[in-house]
Amino acid sequence: MKTIALAGGCFWGIDEFFSRKEGVLLTKSGYANGTVENPTYEQVCTGKTGHAETVWVEYDETETNLELLLTKFFKVIDPTSLNKQGNDVGTQYRTGIYYTSEEDRPVIEAFIEGRRAKYAAPIVVEVEPLKNFYPAEEYHQDYLKKNPRGYCHIDLSID
């Protein structure tokens, strides 16, 4: 089993999107790489904690791999949009790839480098080690499963 943390705007859609992918064993919505321990949603929404709404993804590397997951991730985010995805605006909605293993960094960097020519604007996705991750409140977990008509800024039918 391997892990990666992905920030792509509101975590509800990213969580639901990856929970449907082959080889993904677990997803969990949370807050990553900020300065406040165990922040609340309300604190994160102020933009003062430094956290990004992020989804923890555990996957079976015998069924999928990091490059395939990143390919899917880039299908549902705008990697050139700084602190904004869909209607969500603020630093907590920035895009990021937060790795949990140093061996993943060159894979991530090569993936992004290979995508640069596809965009007119610079890619602004953060690539950093995962410094911290705090699970979001229970009502955020599996939100779109619990609320099928809830807000989602991405097309969940994309493969």
UniProtKB/TrEMBL annotation:
PANTHER family registered for this protein in UniProt: MITOCHONDRIAL PEPTIDE METHIONINE SULFOXIDE REDUCTASE
Family in the record: Belongs to the MsrA Met sulfoxide reductase family.
Single GO biological process annotation from the record: cellular response to oxidative stress
Lineage: Bacteria, Bacillati, Bacillota, Clostridia, Eubacteriales
Main enzyme class: oxidoreductase
Gene name of the encoded protein: msrA
Keywords in alphabetical order: Oxidoreductase
Pfam families on file: PMSR (PF01625)
Gene Ontology MF terms in the entry: peptide-methionine (S)-S-oxide reductase activity
The keyword Ribosomal protein appears for this protein: no
Transmembrane annotation, as ranges: none
Source domain of life: Bacteria
GO cellular component terms given for this protein: cytoplasm
Reaction catalysed by this enzyme: [thioredoxin]-disulfide + L-methionine + H2O = L-methionine (S)-S-oxide + [thioredoxin]-dithiol; L-methionyl-[protein] + [thioredoxin]-disulfide + H2O = L-methionyl-(S)-S-oxide-[protein] + [thioredoxin]-dithiol
Active site (record annotation): 10
This protein's name: Peptide methionine sulfoxide reductase MsrA
Function noted in UniProt: Has an important function as a repair enzyme for proteins that have been inactivated by oxidation. Catalyzes the reversible oxidation-reduction of methionine sulfoxide in proteins to methionine.
E.C. number(s) listed in UniProt: 1.8.4.11
Domain Peptide methionine sulphoxide reductase MsrA: 4-153
Family matches, as HAMAP family: MsrA
